[in-house]
Amino acid sequence: MYKKICSKYEPTKDNLIHILHEIQDTHPQHYISDEAVEEVSKYLNLPTNHIYGVLTFYSMYSTTPRGKNIIRLCESPPCYIKGSENILRKLKVLLGVETGETSKDGLFTLELSACLGVCGNAPVMMINEDVYGDLTEEKVEEIIEKYRRAQ
Ligand code: FES
The pTM is what? Predict the structure, then answer.
């Protein structure tokens, strides 16, 4: 699987980020495994240390398995002022996790994010590629329920 992804790109160092992105996006657990790093290292002829350096530098990458749905709650000031703390507390209770953790059923990983670019609708969160704004605790409960039903 990793070889196939690598082969879509020219084997140049400039493509490292693109390859890592695709590997993470297409993995059902949204992460980059040691095996994937080995494969990319061989393909681009880069030391694995260099790749791990990139993975730790960018917070969007994960080297541990994550849930099927990645929740990113905005923690920047405009969302904070509009109550993102309450939304975070609610999400933790609903999912039974702390920030950075994955729910026991493997459905959700809860993460924090910087501004998601839709401050007019604060507080805001993203689940995978979908944006949810003007959040209230009730709305969050409905959204999580919708995802649970969809599984
Ligand atoms: S500050 Fe939260 S979306 Fe911009």
Answer: 0.82
